[in-house]
Amino acid sequence: MQDRPEIEAVLEMESINSTPRIHTGKSSSTDAEDGVSLTWKDLRVTVVNGKNGRPILHGLTGFARPGELLAIMGPSGCGKSALLNALAGWILDPHTRKAGDILINGHKQTMAYGTSAYVTQDEALIHTLTVTEAVYYSAQLQLPDTISRSEKKQRAETTIREMGQQDAMNTRFFASNGFPCPTLQNPSDHFLKTIKKDFDKDIKEGFVNEIPTEEVINILVNSYKSSDIFQHAQTEIAQICKQHSRAVEKEKRHVTFFTQCHVLTRRSFINMYRDPGYYRWRLAVYIALALTLAVLFNNLGLSYGSIQARGALLLFVTAILTFMTIGGFPSFVEEMKVFERERLNGHYGIIAFVLANTISAIPFLIVISLIPGTICYYIPGLQKGFQHFFFSISTLFASMMLIESLMMVVASLVPKFLT
């Protein structure tokens, strides 16, 4: 995953200095006092495999000031996402080790909920929800209960209207070290080809003065460590740590557990209703199979031989309706992706998700148990009486709930299956 991650620091510091900083006295001071500064020193991330460890991040150092935009650039696989995950506290793999200091306003503490947000490049969304619904449900899970529903909806609509993005780049650092961007060449492509080992073939054909990529990376890293940019970063980090004397208070802005369950239940119910792969297709298949079994075991009668036929019928009904729960596996895996992302962002916990998902699934499981179960109960002529029928449907529903729960357990253990 990592060729030489030190180059990331070079690109990082280049982006910091791409635009001159403007100090306007009172405004800058106010931003520094009220904002949150983030610094990291000698940050290292290593994947442990047995006795051996494979480094992903090698001693990165940097800072981010309030009111500024920091761009971290680099080729694919250089560790950009690993750095952001480490800063956001998303290193949850038991085989991954993180070392170094991550300071907020000069204090070692975790990101406070409500003061930071992390949007990844592969954001997971529930595809059955509209844009408005997705943003609105997210607002209900994140904004406190002191805000009314109408205001939350208004904020969601405002967010949708104001979405946008900006781009910026600078090429001075590479040019000063003997790797200028050629005329009519895209600077981004030039940077990537300069430090990415996958483009060694281009180098052999005359790119970058035929210097091997490893040597290019070493030149840039050593140049950065001896440059004024590196010294400036060290000075800035020291000033940030001295400037902020107070730690960032963790705001208790979480919605209540009841609100979390209510919102998640509504969202999950809508997803299950709109996604045909969750229950609708399964219900159609169950009805077709139930009619087939009902015809095959029609009018069993009360003879001695009907005992074995009744047992076979009940076995087929239970086996088919429970084992075909795997049909909803892909849909639940997609929902698990959204859950993992939102849980890491602190929107809600595991209990709220499990409880909401279970409650929203109950109506669908009742329908799936009732309709096919009724067909397979009365047409073959099983035991008369509502109590016997109710017991049969209840047993089938309990079996469906059990298998559905086991399917969710398996999906949580192998979340990337079928993806």
UniProtKB/TrEMBL annotation:
SUPFAM superfamilies attached to this UniProt entry: P-loop containing nucleoside triphosphate hydrolases
GO molecular function: ABC-type transporter activity; ATP binding; ATP hydrolysis activity
Keyword Transmembrane helix: yes
Entry membrane topology: Multi-pass membrane protein
GO CC annotation terms, alphabetical: membrane
InterPro entries: ABC2_TM, ABC_transporter-like_ATP-bd, P-loop_NTPase, Plant_ABCG
A Pfam family assignment: ABC_tran
Keyword line: Membrane, Transmembrane, Transmembrane helix, Transport
Domain of life: Eukaryota
ABC transporter domain mapped to chain residues: 38-285
Membrane-spanning residues: 281-300, 312-330, 350-377, 389-414
Subcellular compartments: Membrane
Recorded family membership: Belongs to the ABC transporter superfamily. ABCG family. Eye pigment precursor importer (TC 3.A.1.204) subfamily.
UniProt protein name: ABC transporter domain-containing protein
Species this chain originates from: Gossypium klotzschianum
